[in-house]
Design brief:
Blueprint lengths: L6 H24 L9 E5 L3 E3 L2 E3 L2 E5 L7 E9 L2 E10 L4 E5 L2 E3 L7 E9 L3 E8 L5
Antiparallel strand pairs: 1-4, 2-3, 3-8, 4-7, 5-6, 5-9, 9-10
């Protein structure tokens, strides 16, 4: 024989669920950071050679207001070892954070990659990686 939840416990669960659904709907309607449309994305451009320097650029873009702001970091790697890092901090409004790591080229052929990482720490962390396809 199964015993149903006591009415008082069931009523409390329904009330808590109703309050949570109403709060989420109000926040989404207001466009707050915890709305369903809160999104960030990353874009990394493959490193390129420019006058003795390997350069890369990229960005993280967020389309929502973040409570504490959000950030982007760009890491330039040579043969799997980080050789430069560039970062930026964006205020709590929608927009882009650009990163431009760079490092001196070495003789010989190395594998260069650029990783962009960032986003709103409360809601979405994003990353993208691009590697060079030329031998430099």
């Amino acid at each position: 024989m199964t015993v149903p939840f006591p009415a008082s416990r069931w009523s409390r669960r329904v009330a808590v669920l109703a309050v949570a659904v109403a709060a989420a709907a109000a926040s989404a309607a207001a466009g707050g950071a915890d709305s369903a449309s809160a999104t960030c994305w990353a874009h990394a451009k493959a490193p390129y050679y420019d006058a003795g320097t390997i350069k890369a650029w990229g960005y993280v873009e967020c389309n929502h207001t973040a409570e504490w702001g959000w950030a982007a970091d760009g890491y330039l790697k040579r043969d799997g070892t980080e050789v430069d890092q560039d970062g930026c901090w964006h205020d709590n409004t929608p927009g882009r954070c650009h990163v431009t790591p760079a490092a001196p080229n070495r003789s010989g052929d190395q594998r260069w990659c650029h990783r962009v990482y960032g986003g709103d720490p409360n809601y979405s962390a994003v990353a993208d990686t691009a590697c060079e396809s030329e031998g430099f």
